[in-house]
Amino acid sequence: MRIGEIAALVGVSTRAVRHYHHVGLLPEPERRPNGYRAYTVRDAVQLARVRRLTELGLGLDEVRDVLADDAGRDLAEVLRELDADLARQEAELAERRRRLAVLLAAGPGDGEPVSPALAALLAKAPATDSPAAAKDREHLTLLDATGAAGEELYSVLGPLAADPAVLALYERLDELAGAAVDDPRIGPLAEAMVAAVPDEAFAAIPSDGPVIPGFGEALLAEYAPAQAEVVRRVMAAFTAEGRA
């Protein structure tokens, strides 16, 4: 094989091949009488291992150490290892495609990279222009990305997301955008929001404080004063031993 052929076979650039020669990760092959390098299957295996190790995040010095430890191994053993690694990558790719299919089927709306479980939950919610509902979705997306919320919580919130009465609660929260912090609507709305949450959801939420340090304060800062007071009371119920 010539340099362009081995590069295409392994999936790297010819520039990368030459660089690996330069730093000593890939031995220079013998040259034909015409001056071209003649690469073997062994060279391709070595180059594939270099690529795999660098894709795993190893630096070139670390790759060199790994390759030194593997020196002298039987070619068939190395090929079997590479085959097993390719099988693992195929399985990971299949799982990623499965997750993508769930997201596409759920139709989260704006293409947010959320988990399939959250995408399925959001798909149950009715379409709305409510700013409060949009904020709630953003907060769920953040918790989802950090792993602070999971399938158990999303499962019990399913009926809640599909309930039209919940949309009415969001709209009531929107109405408090310009209200004072002592507005008489604050208490009843907070109580209604807490009452709407299933007992199973409270059980699925940690009771020892915010799941992310500083998240509560940052969340409240996004709301107008009266709205923030409603949300604060709801959050207090979520983090208390039972309902507030």
Condensed summary:
Pfam families: MerR_1 (PF13411). The protein contains 13 helices and no strands.
Q: In terms of topology, how is this protein built?
A:
Blueprint: H1 3-10, H2 14-23, H3 41-55, H4 60-69, H5 75-106, H6 116-124, H7 131-146, H8 151-161, H9 164-174, H10 186-196, H11 199-203, H12 215-220, H13 225-239
Pfam family, one: MerR_1
InterPro entries: DNA-bd_dom_put_sf, MerR-type_HTH_dom, MerR_fam
Keywords: Coiled coil, DNA-binding
For the structure shown, list the relevant keywords.
mainly alpha, 244 residues, elongated, 2 domains, 13 helices
Protein model, in words:
This protein has about 240 residues and is an all-alpha fold. Helices cover about 65% and strands about 0% of the residues. The chain has helices spanning about 5-10, 15-25, 40-55, 60-70, 75-105, 115-125, 130-145, 150-160, 165-175, 185-195, 200-205, 215-220, 225-240. Helix 5 (about 75-105) packs parallel to helix 6 (about 115-125), helix 6 runs parallel beside helix 8 and helix 9 packs antiparallel against helix 10 (about 185-195). The radius of gyration is 28 Å and the shape is elongated. The protein starts with a helix and ends in a 5-residue tail after the last helix.
